[in-house]
Design brief:
two-stranded antiparallel ribbon; 10 helices
Length: 214
């Protein structure tokens, strides 16, 4: 019995807990390494060195570097999305105020966590089909959540509109980051808000001005 217990636990942690801890360390290290060097310039060895682990522990948790990149992306997305949702929930209930608060939380997170922003916005793109699929799935989920919090009750869900708004806001964020976080964050938020309020306005009715209907 003593031998069995000692093989399953070490310093109060089970084998599963130690494995989860190593996985978390690799993800945290990879976010830092990808943010500093770029995904394509990073190596498994470099990530493991940053995590203080040997390479055998990498392959304990990940099939390859792409799998690690996807998990890094999910980790960053979950953190940023949590901040956005909390900001929206704490804001005034009208769609404009809520959208502004959520956008400010988003841009603030990108500026504060520049390395994570690189993983979220830059390193995830064009690596492989699997990585692109993870990115697309995340954008759909983000669009649905943002729409849920900012559109009027009873509004018809428009996934294409959600995709356009989220993609547009990301494009603004990329330009803002590329310009060295200029103009000031308040101005960047207002620019993105003009895009975001399209969701709050809802789809145009058929036959209304600006549509193709006669």
């Amino acid at each position: 019995m003593t031998t069995e217990l000692s093989s399953r636990s070490y310093r109060g942690q089970s084998q599963e807990q130690r494995r989860a801890d190593r996985r978390a360390r690799l993800i945290a290290a990879a976010i830092a390494v990808y943010g500093e060097r770029g995904y394509h310039q990073a190596t498994v060895k470099g990530v493991c060195e940053a995590a203080g682990l040997t390479e055998r522990y990498f392959y304990e948790s990940f099939v390859n570097s792409e799998a690690l990149l996807i998990d890094c992306f999910h980790a960053v997305t979950a953190t940023v999305m949590g901040e956005i949702v909390r900001a929206g929930a704490a804001a005034a209930p009208d769609p404009t105020a809520r959208s502004r608060a959520m956008l400010h939380a988003y841009f603030s997170a990108l500026q504060r966590e520049s390395r994570k922003a690189r993983v979220f916005l830059v390193e995830i793109r064009g690596v492989s089909r699997a990585v692109d699929a993870a990115f697309d799935d995340a954008l759909k989920a983000i669009g649905k959540e943002v729409a849920r919090m900012t559109t009027p009750a009873g509004a018809v869900e428009d996934e294409l509109l959600q995709a356009g708004v989220v993609g547009g806001v990301i494009a603004i964020a990329l330009r803002w980051i590329g310009n060295g976080y200029q103009p000031p964050i308040e101005q960047a938020v207002e620019s993105a808000l003009k895009m975001g309020t399209v969701l709050a306005a809802g789809p145009l009715e058929q036959g209304s001005p600006g549509t193709a209907a006669d």
